[in-house]
Design the sequence.
């Protein structure tokens, strides 16, 4: 399928590993020029060089901490300075924030604030910074990665992701008349450093999770999710907005351990 996005310009946050990295590769394969943002300068540089070596335009790499206002402003400003108007925004940056055992039963404002800064506020600020250009063009695609909204243990990322989905759904209605779509993707168990390195670090833990929860019988690959990002960013998906699509191998439950 011709996605008809060659020549478009995209910003991808959390692009250093996993889903973000796979998305950058998927979009550049479709002829999209990308700006990639993340915290790890070395990993950003490696991805930039890999894309450039493939013959695609060299990406703009932006190292920034988007949990801060200065960080989100820098990402927006540098992406637009390098590429001009951004047509496609992929809000991928985020991370699980389980409550430390030592904080059980207590209130830790710094822990909550950091989780919301990373998993909600960063996406909101960056999106709002890029909207004027999309509105002026009468075209835009915003794809945001959400996730599980309820879990067995208190995890500050879950209510932040729920807020992200609620905000995205309302935003989709406001922006539809401007030719801008807003959609979310809810990943299940994907083979990324966060899932296989932190949540299920052993083969035994992964096998147990698959047996209990995943009818497909395996964890997903970042490239499988990136393919959906590319489609939702395309001309072909112009009538899809306000959706949240699970990519989870048919998971029986969304609750995280």
Sequence:
């Amino acid at each position: 399928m011709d996605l008809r996005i060659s020549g478009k310009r995209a910003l991808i946050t959390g692009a250093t590993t996993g889903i973000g990295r796979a998305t950058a590769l998927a979009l550049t394969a479709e002829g999209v020029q990308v700006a990639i943002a993340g915290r790890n300068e070395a990993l950003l540089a490696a991805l930039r060089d890999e894309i450039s070596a493939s013959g695609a335009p060299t990406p703009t790499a932006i190292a920034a901490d988007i949990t801060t206002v200065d960080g989100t402003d820098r990402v927006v400003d540098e992406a637009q300075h390098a590429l001009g108007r951004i047509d496609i925004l992929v809000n991928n940056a985020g991370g699980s924030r389980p409550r430390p055992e030592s904080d059980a039963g207590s209130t830790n404002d710094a822990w909550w604030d950091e989780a919301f800064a990373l998993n909600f506020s960063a996406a909101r600020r960056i999106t709002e910074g890029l909207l004027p250009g999309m509105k002026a063009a009468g075209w835009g695609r915003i794809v945001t990665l959400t996730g599980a909204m309820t879990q067995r243990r208190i995890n500050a990322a879950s209510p932040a992701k729920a807020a992200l989905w609620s905000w995205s759904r309302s935003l989709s209605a406001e922006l539809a008349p401007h030719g801008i779509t807003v959609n979310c993707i809810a990943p299940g168990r994907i083979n990324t450093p966060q899932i296989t390195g932190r949540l299920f670090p052993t083969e035994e833990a992964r096998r147990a999770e698959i047996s209990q929860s995943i009818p497909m019988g395996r964890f997903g690959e970042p490239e499988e999710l990136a393919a959906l990002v590319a489609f939702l960013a395309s001309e072909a998906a112009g009538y899809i907005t306000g959706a949240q699509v699970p990519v989870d191998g048919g998971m029986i439950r969304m609750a995280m351990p």
About this structure: The mean pLDDT is 92.
